[in-house]
Write a structure and sequence with these properties.
Layout (H helix, E strand, L loop, with lengths): L7 E3 L2 H6 L1 H11 L6 H8 L4 E8 L2 E11 L2 E9 L8 H13 L5 E7 L3 H9 L3 E6 L9 E7 L5
Parallel strand pairs: 4-5
Antiparallel strand pairs: 1-2, 2-3, 3-4, 5-7, 6-7
């Protein structure tokens, strides 16, 4: 069942700093090899980082960390709080990233664990396609799927 929700997606560095504890909590509950607080702090303060956090009912529900290089973006982290998955929050973060960068970028790249079926479905549903498979890259023996989304050509 889909739930209607009001949401706010922000990228303001001051708000990102206040969300850091929540980001770390979600990260630690989700990943076997989570980023550290210092990793996130460094990303927040990097001029090439493109970061979005999704707030719902004044609580952090998800985040997307990416990096801009000339006319390409690499998504380094996209995560939604485990209790709020399947409600469109991940898609909302991707759509916001696309909307904010469609005029200046040609493509968005990411890597995902091939066994993370919900994430693979999210990305393929958003228009990403697999460009390379790296065999048995993850600790669980899973392959890594390198994926790309290409923005429509501009006139």
């Amino acid at each position: 069942m889909r739930v209607d929700f009001s949401r706010t997606i922000v990228s303001d560095p001051t708000i990102l700093q206040t969300c850091l504890d929540s980001i770390c909590a979600i990260e630690n509950s989700t990943f076997n090899r989570p980023w550290s607080r210092a990793d996130f702090f460094q990303e927040i303060n990097d001029v090439n980082s493109r970061i979005l956090v999704l707030l719902n009912e004044n609580q952090l529900r998800g985040y997307l960390f990416s990096r801009l290089a000339v006319d390409e973006i690499s998504i380094n982290k996209l995560c939604v709080h485990p209790d709020f998955r399947g409600r469109g929050f991940g898609k909302a973060l991707l759509c916001e990233l696309f909307d904010r960068n469609c005029k200046r970028c040609r493509s968005v790249f990411l890597e995902v664990d091939s066994q993370n079926i919900p994430a693979v479905s999210l990305y393929t549903g958003a228009g990403f396609s697999v460009i390379r498979v790296r065999k048995k890259i993850y600790a669980n023996g899973a392959d890594a799927l390198e994926m790309v989304y290409k923005f429509p050509r501009r006139s």
